[in-house]
Design brief:
2 domains, mainly alpha, globular, 11 helices
Length: about 290
């Protein structure tokens, strides 16, 4: 059958990917797991804060001298919170929330004889190359090229969009010393690792398998590429939704970055390039936030 110009353009923009569509769970089980993991993430995120508040209230009532000592550690002389303590609490909340989330998925997959690493493609198996070094370079240049394209697009788009100050950026600019270093590690390494596992490795895969089976929209079952595109968009929307603390302009770019990360994952069949792209983006954004005024 002769390929039309529109089909040729479509194949160029959205080619067949290397990512397998054989997600091991049905959409009902995957959806149930997602809502459970979201609840675990919220529980893990708020638990350190609740423990801290309970501890401070209890010490104030029953151990006032110890309470005063604790207050001197967590607050500056002017009464403002100690930034080092705030960063430590934030890191603990993030790691506990994501840790509970991933541990649940890992255990559920293990019940069926699957590994989390294998299911999400957290390896270089499908990256072209005859050696580990060649495959690593393949993952790196793909991530770098994707970041370059996104950066050029963002720079152009920001000429026409509002650029309001962000409270998160103001908070980062207020940090220094160890607090700044720890926050950088969390933003540039921790967040890309955990978020790619959840939003691309799990959520995108769940949507993709569901749409290809025609579970929600029967028309998508006969068009795998359209099913994949729907999964890219929906997983990116979920990614942006989890960052609602940001301004709408930032949310738009987070959505577009989510689409790019999912598409890079789909095309390469490996989660590693998406993690690298995510890490580069966060590291550069962090640097610009702390060195621009």
């Amino acid at each position: 059958m002769k390929t039309t110009t529109c089909e040729s353009v479509g194949n160029f923009l959205f080619p067949e990917g290397r990512l397998s569509a054989d997600f091991p769970w049905t959409w009902k089980r995957a959806a149930k797991a997602y809502f459970i993991t979201f609840g675990l993430f919220m529980l893990g995120s708020f638990l350190p804060v609740l423990i801290f508040i309970t501890f401070m209230l209890g010490s104030q009532l029953y151990f006032p001298e110890f309470h005063e000592t604790a207050m001197r550690l967590i607050a500056n002389p002017d009464g403002m919170p100690n930034m080092g303590f705030m960063v430590a609490l934030t890191v603990t909340s993030f790691l506990m929330g994501m840790g509970l989330e991933l541990d649940y998925i890992r255990k559920e997959l293990a019940k069926d004889g699957h590994s989390l690493r294998g299911v999400v493609g957290m390896n270089l198996d499908k990256i072209p190359g005859n050696s580990f070094l060649a495959k690593s370079w393949g993952a790196l240049w793909r991530a770098g090229l994707a970041y370059l394209g996104f950066s050029l697009f963002s720079a152009l788009a920001l000429q026409f969009l509002p650029q309001p100050e962000q409270p998160t950026i103001d908070f980062i600019r207020s940090l220094s010393g160890h607090a700044l270093s720890i926050t950088f590690v969390l933003v540039a390494i921790g967040a890309p690792l955990f978020e790619e596992l959840i939003f691309r490795g799990f959520l995108f895969q769940m949507f993709r398998g569901t749409f290809r089976q025609g579970r929600w929209f029967a028309a998508l079952a006969s068009n795998p590429k359209l099913a994949d595109l729907a999964a890219v968009v929906l997983s990116a929307a979920a990614f942006a939704f989890q960052h609602l603390q940001f301004h709408p302009t930032t949310l738009l770019f987070l959505f577009l970055m989510g689409c790019l990360l999912a598409e890079l994952y789909r095309r390469t069949g490996s989660l590693i390039p998406s993690m690298i792209l995510h890490a580069i983006n966060n590291a550069v954004s962090f640097y610009l936030a702390t060195h621009s005024h």
